[in-house]
Amino acid sequence: TLRLGLDEEPRMELAGPTSDERHVGDEGRPLLRALSMGQFELYYQAQFDCVSRQLIGVEALLRWQHPVHGLRLPGEFIGAAERSGAILQLDAWALRTACHQMRQWLDLDIAPPLMAVNVSAAQFARPDLVDFVAEVLRETGLAADRLELEIVERALLDPVRAAPTMRRLRAMGVRLAIDDFGTGYSSLGYLSRYPVNRLKIDRCFVARMGRDRTSVAITDAVVALGLSLGLDVVAEGVETEDQLEHLRLHLCPAAQGWLFGQPQPAANFAQLLRRERPGRGGIKQA
Ligand code: C2E
Ligand code: MG
Ligand code: MG
Ligand code: MG
């Protein structure tokens, strides 16, 4: 089944566990309940070309608007979501919501070239993932190459499972990025086996660039590796002009980070999109 339990109307009462909830561990129940009550939201963060400073894409990032505790970041709930299995519902909701948002921005003629969505290892391992992605693309009418799935290295440990999924997604036209590249179990050999489009340099390397030669070396090496393999590269967590300048000098094509803007709710992000719409020139200095 492709339903993934997402088509239900938001459930306002807190009666017994829903059918979804019976499949998740205790830690996951509050998350599913929050999801069904509409407490999750996607924030969007822009990605820019390092040289032209033009908008090249957007990453969707999950947020929990907790009625008591306020805005909660993934670091506070993703662990519990993964341990309990609730991550499957959260990821499916995020993918569908991000694609619907892209549809709306396309209709407003302010869409960014690309929407990037994070996919957990568990979601990536779902046998019905490819069908689910196809269904969401169909229901939103989104061209597959507008969607990029960000996969963590951990999801790629089993090449027998991962490679066919990646090939099927690529055959549909969906783009694939390796998130937090260099922080997981990196066997560089997998880059030749997997049909990846893009490497995302983890922000821990970018953050330490100013004070740690090893991080500079790793950042530069990932850029060079990506480019020589014909892959796109984007550096995460770019906060300063110095970092951007270094990346630019080392031919890193793209950057994402607070220098350009924090992740923002869709309504705020639409203002940035209106400023940056194609034909209006690149982003000005932050
Ligand atoms: P990620 O995919 O590597 O996302 C980058 C993280 O860096 C985001 O944290 C973003 O807000 C943060 N960030 C961006 N620019 C800067 C910067 O200049 N400086 C600093 N210090 N941080 C910056 P966030 O939103 O808290 O998300 C954390 C992680 O949670 C994500 O890391 C991703 O692994 C995971 N995540 C987020 N949304 C989803 C989702 O829908 N599904 C899954 N499975 N994981 C998600
Ligand atoms: Mg990501
Ligand atoms: Mg990342
Ligand atoms: Mg990261």
Helix and strand topology:
Elements: H1 19-22, H2 29-36, E1 40-49, E2 55-66, E3 70-72, H3 74-84, H4 87-107, E4 115-119, H5 121-124, H6 129-140, E5 147-152, H7 159-172, E6 175-181, H8 190-193, E7 198-201, H9 203-207, H10 213-228, E8 232-235, H11 241-249, E9 254-256, E10 264-265, H12 266-276
Parallel strand pairs: 2-4, 4-5, 5-6, 6-7, 7-8, 8-9
Antiparallel strand pairs: 1-2, 1-9, 1-10, 2-3
Bound molecules: ligand C2E and magnesium ion (3 copies).
Annotation field: number of helices: 12
Terminal CA distance? 46 Å
Helix content: 40-55%
Structure summary, number of beta strands? 10
Give the helices and strands as they follow along the chain.
HHEEEHHEHHEHEHEHHEHEEH
In percent terms, what proportion of residues is strand?
15-25%
Principal-axes shape call: globular
| Rg calculated over all Cα atoms | 19 Å
- List each distinct ligand once: ligand C2E, magnesium ion
Which structural class fits the helix and strand makeup?
Answer: alpha/beta
Oligomer: single chain
Report strand order across the widest sheet: 1-2-4-5-6-7-8-9
Low-confidence stretches: 1-18, 281-286
Mean of all residue-level pLDDT scores: 89
Could you describe the largest sheet, including whether it forms a barrel? 8 strands, mixed, barrel
Organism: Sphaerotilus mobilis
Domain EAL: 24-277
Pfam family, one: EAL
InterPro entries: Cyclic-di-GMP_PDE-like, EAL_dom, EAL_sf
